[in-house]
Amino acid sequence: MLPQLASTQFERPMLRQIFTPASTGSPRQDLYNHLSGLPQLARLDFEDHTIAGNLIVRIEPDLGSSSEPEKETKIVSVPYAERIFGNNADAVEFVRCVKLIAGEDGLARELQTIASHYYKEAKARPAGDVLKEMGLLLKDR
Predict the structure, then answer these.
(1) Residue 19's closest CA among 39, 3, 43?
(2) Residue 41: helix, strand or coil by DSSP?
(3) What pLDDT score was predicted for residue 6?
(4) Cβ(75)–Cβ(119) under 8 Å?
(5) In Å, how far from its chain's centre is CA 106?
(6) What is the DSSP string of 62-119?
(7) Smallest Cα–Cα separation from 78: which of 88, 66, 63, 69?
(8) pTM for this one?
(9) Does the CA dihedral 99-80-94-111 come out positive or negative?
């Protein structure tokens, strides 16, 4: 029998523990009990992967053509930001902050999500306050 799973949300069990529920004869109940005992990060691993025999497999989503990410990130361009902020200086700072918040390996979808969030904020509050908030996020890094 496998050792008990850790009870905290931050400890990750070994892969074998994540993908091997205890067998009591009721497959559905075994799965439900197993899922309820997994820490959150381990549950995400369980849900993102599939077991094929002795292999643990994760199928990556299709990222589409190279032009598709460029289309998604048009909202992270200076001309688009100028329409929202009204001037070039704030637009340039906004684009710089979005890219820094997303990180060096930020995907197009992450850039789009971050930009979209802060555009909504800029429509509801003064642009200077939004840029200041973004700058504070970057100070912590």
Answers:
(1) 43
(2) helix
(3) 47
(4) yes
(5) 10
(6) P---THHHHHHGGGGSHHHHHHHHSSHHHHHHHHHHHHHHH-TT--HHHHHHHHHHHH
(7) 88
(8) 0.49
(9) negative
First to last CA, the chain: 43
One-letter amino acid at 77 equals: S
Q: What is the pLDDT of residue 40?
A: 80
For 96, other C-beta atoms within 10 Å of its C-beta total: 15
Side-chain half-sphere CA neighbours of 66 within 13 A: 0
DSSP helix/strand/coil, 5 = coil
Sequence-distant (6+) residues with CB within 8 A of 123 are 84
